[in-house]
Amino acid sequence: MESQLRNLVIDAIFPRFCASCHKEGSLWCVVCKEIWSFKPLAPACGFCHREGSEVTCLSCKSTTYLDGLTAFGPYANPVIRSMLHSWKYIGDRDAEPVLQQWLYRDADRLGPPMLPFHIVPVPLHEKRKRVRGFDQAYVLATWIEKMYGLPILPLLKRSIHTTPQAKVSGDQRRLGELDQIFSIDPEYKDFVPKHILLCDDVFTSGATMDAGARILKESGAETVWGFVIARGK
Ligand SMILES: [Zn+2]
Ligand SMILES: [Zn+2]
Questions:
Q1: What is the CATH number of the domain that holds 107?
Q2: Is residue 96, in this structure, part of any structural domain at all?
Q3: 2 in any annotated domain
Q4: Ligand 2 centre and the CA of 45: distance in Å?
Q5: 173 alpha carbon to ligand 2 midpoint, in Å?
Q6: What is the pTM of this model?
Q7: pLDDT tens column, 32-50
Q8: Containing domain of residue 227, as a range?
C-alpha cells in the first residue's frame, strides 16, 4: 500500500524517461523493449574479474567464502545502471517488470549450477526497507523462484545499518569489514540447507555478499553461489 502510494507520487512528480533512448513517457519504451540488446559479461570470477569461469578463482578463494557468481549484466552498462537506479534509489517499482523480463529472457544463460539450491535474499536493513517500501533482493528472489522452481528461505537477518554499496568507493569498503552485518534468523537456525543461492541486485566489491556467504557457511552451508542482476566490469 505504502509502495503504491509512493508510485503515485513518483507518477505525479517525476516524468519518466526510457532508460535506453531517453524518450519521455516510461522507463522502457515499446521500441527499446523490442530492439535493445547488450554484450553479456564473459564468465569470470566475481571478485577479481579473471575470465574463464563463474567459479571464484583459486587466489580469491583463499580469502572469500562465495563459491561463484552468476550476473545478468555489467553494472557499467548505462541502461542496466539506470534501470537499477530508478528501482533502488528512486523506489520506482515500474522498473520491476522490465528487470524481470530481462532475466526471464536470459533464464537459460543465467542458470546456476545444477544443485538443489534454496534461494536466500541478502536482506535490507529494516530501517531502509521502511524508507524504500520494499526489499529489492527479496523481490529478485521471487523472480528466481519462478525461473528455476527453487524455494526461498529468508534466513539471513541484517544487524548493522550500512551505506548503500554503490555509493561507497572501493577504498572505503573492503572484504572482511562487514563480517558482523548478518546473522541467521533464530527461526531457521536448525535449518540451514547445504546449497544456497544468495541473491542481491548488485555485486561491486562483493563484501556484502561475501559476509552473507561467510555466516551461512559457518552455520552449515556447503555451497553458497551468488546471483545478481549486475556486477562490476
Ligand atoms: Zn526507448
Ligand atoms: Zn578471483
A1: 3.40.50
A2: yes
A3: no
A4: 5
A5: 17
A6: 0.89
A7: 999 999 988 999 999 999 9
A8: 41-231
